Amino acid sequence: MGSDLDDSSESGTEMSNESTEPKNKEQPEQGAHSEIVASHYNKLEDRGLFARKKSNIFHLRNFNNWIKSVVIEEYSNLIKQRIPLGSPFRVLDMCCGKGGDLMKWISAKATHLICTDIAQVSLEHCESRYNSTNNPEKERRKVEFFAADATLQQLRTKYKDPSMRLHLVSCQFAFHYSFESYKQADCMFKNAAECLDEGFYFIGTIPDANEIMKRQRLAMADSFGNDIYNITFQCDPNNPPLFGAKYNFQLDEVVNCPEFLVHFPTFEKLALKHGLRLREKKRFDEIFDKYKVPRKFLLERMQALETYPQSSGRGMQHNDGPRKDATQYRHAEEYERQLSANQFFRVGTLSQKEWEAATLYLFFAFEKMKTTYDAVGKPIYS
């Protein structure tokens, strides 16, 4: 699960502008990895809260969830400031998985929610999760669930009302799978943009290809990472293509499947093709710096950070997880040395390994531009 870099400052992720079509029969067909990804997520079991608390990435997963919470809240608030009070608030949760963001949409008071994912079993978990929620507005909320591959199929045709206009499209930790090919990425963007109303938003999170390439070059190896995550390139890291730049990603016991680098200038150009103008792009560490004070209470409530030093007393975590290696918290100890001798020291933090995994990602937000049509019906965006 950055700084606004222009094309010239993305030299760490330069990729060859090769043909997007397979050049020989030995190359996989477009979408060949979709079934692998779907199968992987279908097989993931819900291990329960007790097991999750003992995980090496308990706080990392909560931190990523906190990131999603603050950006979803921000953009939901922007939308509610623009639409008339009492009018519908329509959301598409594209690649919704098991419904990790359902409570966020309920809190945002979405009145029409569409949840779709490639993994049928995950989607069934999502629907069951929603049906088990108890909130007073449930009877008045319209919710749709359907399985689809958003990289190959047009989602609009599966909506109960294909003419509806959406206010927010969200795609969390999933868009990069579409960069297997130009055709798939283009289809994904079409699904994100074609029902989005003018002036409203497409938001999401993806791995930061610039950061991945930077770490690969520092490691001087095709495989790198730490005890929590590992990336192994399955393409030439010295000359990765714009599409199909494949690597295998492992994250503790949660993820182990092929992914694809997203060259952000190409990502932005594809978005423009579908009338989406980049509004912001931030790495997760920048999101944390922006919201850690105004959303401190949420950080604590979600246990997105752990207390250091560990204590059996009250703190920012329920101290049920394994005691971690003190060498992973040298940054916290450095902070302690800056305090005066009479100041009590306890801080919320992540281990160095978890922080390295968290900072592999970035957040993006696009705004749908005004649309007009030429004499032959081709859309013109402004």
UniProtKB/TrEMBL annotation:
It comes from the Eukaryota. Keywords: Methyltransferase, mRNA capping, mRNA processing, Nucleus, RNA-binding, S-adenosyl-L-methionine, Transferase. Residues 55-369 form the MRNA cap 0 methyltransferase domain. It holds the Pfam family mRNA_G-N7_MeTrfase. InterPro entries: mRNA_G-N7_MeTrfase_dom (IPR004971), mRNA_G-N7_MeTrfase_euk (IPR016899), RG7MT1 (IPR039753), SAM-dependent_MTases_sf (IPR029063). Residues 10-19 have a biased composition (Polar residues). This is mRNA cap guanine-N(7) methyltransferase. It comes from Anopheles darlingi (Mosquito).
